[in-house]
Design brief:
The chain is built from eight helices and six strands. With 187 residues, the protein is of the alpha/beta class. Strands 3-2-1-4-5-6 form a six-stranded mixed sheet, with helices on both faces. It is globular, with a radius of gyration of 17 Å. The model has no long low-confidence stretch (mean pLDDT 95).
Length: 187
């Protein structure tokens, strides 16, 4: 099997950022509810007074004010699924796994469209609360082994060196910059 990070790897740019912009444009009043928490926790994160998982959860507070999250996610992907990288589509396999820090509720429709498996950060789409840990770095390996204990990763692809634990698990790994794929740097 091959495993892929999603944002800035097989999809450009970052789906969470684009979905937030989508919600700002389509639900500006709902987004206003998120501003105080976003500013407060953004500053706390900047000064190392909170962790990224807490910041992420606080940023998604706007979900509480959306009437139809599933509908918004569907409409979002209807216009953006064409951003999946062509190099990925050319090599996609049925046993691929997308493993991402982005919210599972956001990536599930695109993973279903691609007919691949998904491991992602579990965020309640109605409250913004995170269930567990942000699926990033070493957590990706933990989650993969939990869901697929016999997994043998042939290749792993990511745009970020924070995914080195997954790269070390794979037989081969590639750092991705749009359509430029290079062997993972030696550490």
């Amino acid at each position: 099997m091959n495993c892929y990070d999603f944002d800035k790897t097989i999809f450009n740019p970052d789906s969470s950022v684009l979905f937030t912009y989508y919600c700002i444009a389509h639900h500006p009043v709902a987004m206003l509810h998120a501003v105080p928490a976003a500013v407060h926790y953004g500053l706390k994160y900047l000064f190392k007074k909170t962790d990224f998982s807490t910041l992420k959860e606080k940023l998604y507070v706007f979900l509480r004010y959306l009437d139809d999250v599933d509908g918004d996610v569907k409409r979002f992907w209807d216009k953006r699924s064409g951003r999946i990288e062509k190099w990925y589509l050319a090599q996609k396999r049925e046993d691929d796994i997308i493993i991402s820090a982005s919210p599972e509720f956001l990536l599930k429709p695109v993973a279903e469209m691609l007919k691949v498996r998904l491991i992602a950060t579990k965020i309640d789409k109605h409250t913004g609360k995170m269930d567990g840990v942000n699926c990033k770095g070493a957590e990706k390996v933990k989650r993969l082994m939990l869901e697929y204990p016999e997994a043998v990763v042939d290749a792993f692809y990511s745009d970020s060196l924070s995914d080195t634990p997954m790269a070390e698990l794979a037989k081969s790994a590639y750092i991705v910059n749009k359509s430029d794929l290079r062997p993972w740097p030696k550490t």
